[in-house]
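Can you give me the bound-state structure? Components:
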Amino acid sequence: MSKMRLLLAAGIALTLGQSAVAQEEITDTAADYEEGGRWYTQHGIPTFKVEEDGTVDFATFSGFRRYNAECFQCHGPDGAGGSYAPALQESVMRLDYYEFQDIVVNGKQEVNAAQNLVMPALGQNPNVMCYLDDIYTYLRARGTDTVGRGRPAKKQDKPEAFSEAEDACMGS
Amino acid sequence: MDLGVLRGHEGSPLVIGDTMYVHTPFPNIVYALDLANDGKIKWKYEPKQDPNVIPVMCCDTVNRGVAYAEGKIFLHQADTKVVALDAETGEVVWEVVNGDPSKGETNTATVLPIKDKVIAGISGGEFGVRGSVTAYNMETGEQEWRAYSMGPDSDILVDPATTTHLGEPVGENSGTNTWEGDQWMIGGGTTWGWYSADLDENLFYYGTGNPSTWNPAQRPGDNRWSMTVMARDIDTGMAKWFYQMTPHDEWDYDGINEMILSEQAIDGTERKLLTHFDRNGFGYTLDRVTGELLVAEKYDPVVNWATEVVMDPSSDQYGRPQVVAQYSTEQNGEDVNSTGICPAALGSKDQQPAAYSPDTQLFYVPTNHVCMDYEPFQVSYTAGQPYVGATLAMYPAPDSHGGMGNFIAWDNIAGEIKWSIPEQFSVWSGALATAGGVVFYGTLEGYLKAVDAETGEELYRFKTPSGIIGNVMTYERDGEQYIGILSGVGGWAGIGLAAGLTNPNDGLGAVGGYAALSDYTALGGQLTVFKLPN
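Here's the bound-state model for the whole set.
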């Protein structure tokens, strides 16, 4: 019992510590409810859910797969960044969900004397767009260090609702 | 000299007479430096390119250099524009557009100026581009012929009766009959590597890349002629022979690496040979006149996806790698993670060229010592968008020295490693062998290293300002020998290794996390030239 209280106290301290930097970092990642095979925060933003034994929700696992197929050629493995493009595991802790969507859909350019950064518009790419929420929750799980580098060791089975939404989106 | 662009610097400078020509990654600036005047800039050419080409290039905005012939410098830009510049003044003589970046067609390679032609390839295998090689008239820039990697016979420039594969005629429709339906139209087989030529045979040689997509289940068949060594007539583009190294690729082992030509004795008979270190981990030696396969052996002992390449011409498996079921991403199926495959998708060696010394008759090969997990899944094709279809995790070869690279000396006739130098990171620099018995290469930490050609013993090292992915070059001027090297980390190496590689199969007990390249070097763009002692 006393052990439980200690853990709880540590949890509160952690939360307070994070809220102090809330303006730079988005910390609200707690899974509140599940809908259509995917978890959401209390504000309706897609998020990850990792069980105590390390089992990740299927959407986040899907995000790992799609990220390391569609994004890593520029942004490096596991959101860790490379010499070519920024580490998205850090970017998603500053960008909110809607800014993230906007950049992926419409692309982004910072072309000037100092740099040539160009992100393509991926809004027409079903391999990205059908998994955009998955990729977002995966990167947030990376950014909060909830999920480590590499392939998550344990994953939830694919929910029926997830398959249906995937097939509808990919047209398969 | 600082080149003013902070991206991956592949390729090498070129010295013609008293002038050194140096190129940069995107935007592909070319500098002409006056070596008679302390490297003063004679002229500078900076193309105006649409920056939207940048993200369509897979794996950094590298460019592998300019080429020279007949008083012209040839630049093949990222946006596929081929430009001929007056070597003295830098003025544009002609320019021609080779591809369409909006469909994912880009360029990273240099061109091959040969006879009265300039031969150019194309990139974009991860965008469903159908690879091709095109010859332009050296004087005017007019297109003379184009040979696709797959498609109808009239597109791939074969004669079904006389073009051979391992000694047998390829037959009709060889570029479509190992594809399902129209899949050859987005078939990949891009041509972004290095080109060689034998003027006596009137042939040039190159390799084709991976078939699109990385999900093998979506493209049944051998997918000819992706992953193929090609010998074509310089004047007409007509193919003389093909050799497909990796039929129905399941691992992204592009076949584009350089073809090194040598004349060597085999069993007492002088042969014209072609030696090729493929991404798939096999070192191939072929007769470059006939296309006969002479040697196919692993040049990194950890290579495990295939047991061997069958060398018996009477076997129905002749020339085919014997795929190990455990490492077959096709046999394991979609949505299954195949683990422990060696080499990783970046290959036992990528485009960074090996060097040959006629004195030692050895090849000096920069290699990767990296393995992977590979999970293919369904993707859909959209023009101009990535068309990948697999998740990869890469890590240093398990149960080895812990590093991600080796620099080896290879005997191409025995098919054996003579010596091997372990390196912490993949060796992503082109090698140089000199008549003085010294071999040079660069490392991703930024060292230029000189080693003894016979023993591999290190003779010298110098740390340049950034990681080296360029090729070591040499030139002579006023009786002095110089060594030049570009520094500037990037390319696949910079993207894949910057944050370090972890082995997800190590389990909780192992020490996770390997050296991160970003702990050793940062972006740069420099040319360093050394004068050798007499």
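A couple of observations. Chain B touches chain A through 50 residues (CB under 8 Å). The mean pLDDT of chain B is 93.
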